[in-house]
Design goal:
The chain is of the alpha+beta class and 697 residues long. α17 packs antiparallel against α18. The protein has a six-stranded antiparallel beta sheet with strand order 3-2-1-6-5-4, with helices on both faces. A five-stranded mixed beta sheet has the order 8-10-11-13-12. β1 and β2 form a beta hairpin. The chain is elongated, with a radius of gyration of 43 Å. The protein contains 23 helices and 13 strands.
Length: 697
């Protein structure tokens, strides 16, 4: 009774869906193919219902025949969906012809098996077993077609085609279990057979969803070689397993008492051979070439090749590793198992091996003006050494270097160019399988070589830029040191000038010793800075800004200049004492230089929240708004005729490193005021210096 309800419901639901599809059968071949498949599925459901109600053999035969035609209808529908909208020269793709041929063979074998069962004709294999074998093969093949459809459809069309693939795929998987179980135990599972109609009814709504989403099923099918290779592999494995299953059945049927033992031994040998073939790189290469040669007009799927090659080049972490990836990417295009990369020396005098992949390391070099390099540069050809040995005249009787002749299995030489310059070349070993190096292979390798050359050229330019930046950092640090040395020399020169008049005074002698000691200590720190870099060796600590400003005042008074100071309570800021003193001293000196005798220069110190504020003002020449906006705090920019323009830039950088800020307010011929905002020193970390911007606004 369950069987009758199952197949009866399938017939009714498919009939209703066929009526819905029939309303749009004029819209195109895809709608017509879907109508044919649903009508045949309706006949299958009705014949199954008739067999369930009567139990007569004629209705069973009709049901099996209707099932065969149902498979054929869905084959036709899927093949129509796989047909591209635009055909090259009006011809069907070779792969589609192969799939259609396999579908036709399976359908014809099924018809023949049904006739043999009806007429009682028997060969080495009983006709009932042949029917089950064919049903299983047809189920596997419909899964192949579904997989082909899903993989080859454009990504933006998968939304509409996905329910169809899920529905038909789910029903096919159930049939795969049913027929596999029947072949294994030589009987049909009655329970599974009885609910088969229900399973197909559950799959039909998904097909209906796809028909609603797809207007005339106009999905853009993209023929992918990768999908074709996977499908062809699946078909080959399926055929292989079916053949071995048939052989195992034959051995068991005719093997007598040893039949089961022979069958198990054959099964183990078959699985072992399948594993060996699957892991064999040469077999995969031959199968890939076979599929590309016979199923496609072009050997390569250029989208897949270019994505793979680009990903290979991008998966490197340095220049040396990139060379190996370049070789591997080029070798994979022609099934080569090894290769090496030769790059031009930085002096451009010769080429040397920079990377190798499964190929011996070579210490040989090739001069840039050699015949090989000139031929590669002038022609841009990919040199096929096999062709060169048989037809040297095609290469203008090119003389190969000795090191290249000694390379084992050397096969192709691919030039790597960037613009009009050849940056290197790759030597690839003989392929795992026979590859015809035709115009398509040459064009692909030449284009890939240009892209690889561009990658390598960009990488070299990046490394050169990094070296330039290192030298720039060193030169900038040297400029800072020279600036500080200039100040030290000026201080010592002033001391020597005053020594002629005051050398007999004890106070001057003591001040002179302190000045020399300070200069020696400062030069020692400069030498340490040159060794360690621009970053101070020790960490910031507390600085008494009041004492520091008083020292600056004393030093300037010794030079004959007056400096007004206005200090509040003791203020401890965070920083390096010598560098903070150099920053404030530089600003004070600039103010003194810009102020003529009789003008005022002052320094004020106060607290502002979690920061110390040092204001240095003068009534000097001032600066223009353009200079403040465009040149101030930039290196090598100054208003002094003899200045270097380094002090303001260094001060700006250091204050910002501490988490502080420098602001300048200046008017031409009126004066300038520079405000330093420095974070206070807090050994317990209670003061938050992140409020700097809020307080300075």
């Amino acid at each position: 009774m369950i069987t009758a309800w199952s197949y009866g419901l399938a017939g009714f639901v498919y009939a209703a869906f066929a009526i819905y599809v029939a309303a749009g059968w004029r819209e195109g071949w895809r709608s017509r193919a879907l109508l044919i498949a649903t009508v045949l599925s309706t006949l299958w459901g009705i014949s199954g219902l008739a067999f369930a109600l009567t139990g007569k053999a004629i209705f069973l035969a009709g049901s099996l025949l209707a099932d065969l035609f149902r498979f054929g209808g869905w084959y036709f529908f899927l093949l129509v969906l796989l047909k591209p909208d635009s055909l090259e020269r009006g011809r069907l793709p070779i792969r589609l012809l192969w799939l259609g041929g396999i579908a036709l063979v399976l359908f014809c074998v099924g018809i023949a098996a049904q006739i043999m069962v009806t007429l009682g004709i028997s060969i080495n294999i009983p006709p009932q077993r042949l029917v089950l074998f064919n049903s299983l093969a047809m189920t596997v093949f419909i899964l192949v077609l579904i997989e082909q459809l899903f993989r080859n459809v454009a990504p933006d069309s998968r939304w509409s085609i996905k329910p169809l693939c899920l529905g038909l795929g789910g029903a096919a998987l159930f049939d795969l279990y049913l027929f596999s179980d029947a072949l294994l135990f030589n009987r049909i599972d009655a329970d599974a057979f009885s609910i088969r109609g229900f399973v197909h009814v559950l799959a039909l709504p998904l097909v209906a969803i796809s028909s609603v989403r797809s207007h005339d099923w106009k999905t853009r099918i993209v023929l992918s070689q990768r999908a074709a290779l996977q499908s062809a592999t699946l078909v080959a494995v399926g055929v292989y397993l079916l053949f071995m299953a048939a052989a195992g059945y034959y051995v068991r049927y005719f093997g007598g008492d040893w039949g089961r033992a022979f069958q198990l031994a054959l099964l183990f040998a078959a699985l072992l051979l399948l594993g060996i073939l699957s892991l064999s790189g040469s077999m995969r290469a031959k199968f890939r070439v076979l599929v590309g040669k016979h199923l496609f007009s072009y050997r390569y799927d250029y989208r897949e090749e270019w994505l793979r090659f680009t990903n290979t080049l991008s998966s490197q972490n340095g220049f040396s590793e990139m060379g190996r990836h370049v070789v591997k990417g080029l070798a994979d295009m022609v099934e080569s198992p090894a290769g090496s990369l030769w790059l031009k020396d930085p002096t451009s005098r010769f080429f040397a091996q920079a990377a190798c992949w499964n190929m011996p390391v070579s210490s040989a070099t090739e001069d840039s003006d050699s015949k090989l390099c000139q031929f590669l540069l002038d022609s841009g050809w990919v040199i096929n050494l096999e062709e060169y040995r048989s037809l040297p005249r095609r290469y203008d009787n090119l003389d190969l270097p000795v090191w290249l002749v000694e390379v084992p299995n050397a096969w192709l030489i691919v030039p790597l160019a960037t613009g009009s310059e050849m940056i290197g070349f790759a030597v690839l070993a003989t392929a795992r399988t026979k590859v015809d190096v035709n115009w398509e292979v040459n064009d692909l390798l030449k284009t890939a070589g240009q892209q690889a050359g561009a990658f390598l050229g960009e990488m070299r330019a990046t490394e050169a830029l990094l070296e330039v930046r290192k030298f720039d950092a060193f030169n900038r640090m040297s400029a800072f040191v020279v600036h500080d040395l200039k100040n030290i020399v000026a201080q010592l020169s002033l001391m020597l000038k005053n020594a002629e008049r005051h050398r007999d005074k004890p106070e001057f002698q003591q001040d002179m010793l302190m000045t020399v000691e300070h200069s020696v200590e400062r030069m020692r720190q400069l030498m340490m800075q040159l060794r360690e870099g621009t970053t101070p060796v020790d960490s910031p600590r507390g600085i008494d800004l009041g004492d520091l400003i008083r020292r600056i005042q004393t030093a300037k008074e010794a030079q004959g200049r007056d400096l007004e100071i206005d200090l509040t309570d003791k203020v401890i800021a965070k920083g390096h004492e010598d560098r903070v003193e150099r920053v404030i001293g530089h600003i004070v000196q600039n103010a003194l230089d810009a102020t003529e005798s009789g003008g005022r220069v002052w320094v004020r110190l106060k607290r502002q929240g979690a920061h110390a504020v040092v204001e240095v003002g003068d009534t000097g020449d001032g600066m223009t708004p353009e200079f403040l906006r465009e040149r101030l705090f930039k290196p090598f920019q100054t208003t002094k005729p003899s200045g270097m323009g380094i002090g303001a830039y260094e001060s700006f950088q250091y204050v910002h490193e501490l988490g502080g800020k420098i602001s300048v307010d200046s008017e031409l011929n009126i004066g300038t005021q520079v405000s330093l905002l420095l974070p206070l020193f807090d050994p317990d970390g209670a003061i938050d210096s992140n409020v700097l911007n809020e307080e300075s606004e």
